[in-house]
Design brief:
It is built from eight helices and 13 strands. The protein is an alpha/beta fold. The strands form two sheets. The chain has a nine-stranded mixed beta sheet with strand order 1-13-12-11-2-3-4-5-6, sandwiched between helices.
């Protein structure tokens, strides 16, 4: 585990965690708790993660929140595998509460029309093996697993198809082996801020994520908790700490549980 800023003291964070009246652990899924897989339904969490999250919830008074870019419908598999209290899906546009209630937000009619146009413009890329995914507020094109020349063809096709869409309504976000066109108005940072608004000044919070789409969440954590980049290779990031999966990720969760054990 490597601090990325001079002012970050991991020991100090874990000392505060041990004394906190409440603890909140916010977690991305793909690339963070589970290695990427071309077929998302086969992206299984690292074996140690489930038991550690169960321990965090039941023995360490931790509120565990999954914050994913997946559609809620596609997140149900991971939610069945992982102990958790609630979940945010589609980059903060869909919510699944601790009571099992589903709710969400809807993009403007103009943004929805633009997303429909954007989806139609990239559908033909599926012929090259790309996976085109429509979510409640975005369209994503995945090229994971494709040979490099084919992946480049898909990437350039996406750039051409989306280059003239309304940037005031939509924004393009690149992620690991893909690109997503998303309605403006919400992102993972909004989900994090809503959780943090329910926390007190002495509560201890951390967000763990791997991709560029997690940077909004890292920004939202600034001054409120620990932002942790989970990734094999370091990149430019607003995170406070870098951990490599799975071993350093597991070590972080183990230390969280050790510091948070209640009597």
């Amino acid at each position: 585990m490597q601090p990325l800023h001079a002012g970050i003291r991991l020991d100090g964070f874990f000392e505060r965690l041990a004394q906190a009246p409440r603890r909140v652990l916010l977690l991305d899924y793909d690339g963070t708790l589970a290695p990427f897989h071309r077929r998302p339904e086969r992206a299984l969490p690292y074996p140690e993660v489930g038991p550690l999250l169960k321990r965090a919830i039941h023995r360490c008074s931790t509120r565990v929140v999954i914050v994913s870019g997946r559609r809620l419908a596609d997140l149900r598999g991971p939610l069945a595998w992982l102990p958790h209290d609630e979940a945010w899906a589609s980059h903060g546009w869909e919510h699944f509460s601790a009571a099992g209630e589903r709710s969400g937000f809807v993009p403007s009619a103009a943004a929805q029309r633009q997303l429909q146009v954007a989806e139609a413009a990239v559908r033909e890329l599926a012929m090259h093996g790309a996976r085109v995914e429509r979510k409640v507020a975005s369209v994503a094109v995945h090229w994971r697993g494709l040979a490099e020349p084919v992946a480049d063809r898909v990437r350039h096709g996406v750039e051409r198809a989306w280059c003239e869409l309304d940037g005031t309504l939509l924004e393009v976000l690149d992620f690991e082996a893909g690109s997503e066109l998303r309605a403006r108005g919400r992102n993972k940072g909004d989900a994090v801020r809503e959780i943090l608004a329910q926390c007190g000044p002495r509560d201890a919070c951390a967000y763990l994520g791997d991709d560029h789409t997690d940077e909004d969440a890292f920004d939202a954590m600034r001054g409120r908790g620990l932002a942790v980049l989970v990734r094999e290779e370091l990149r430019d990031t607003a995170a406070d700490v870098w951990v490599r999966p799975p071993h350093e990720l597991v070590s972080f969760l183990e230390r969280w549980c050790e510091c948070g054990v209640t009597a």
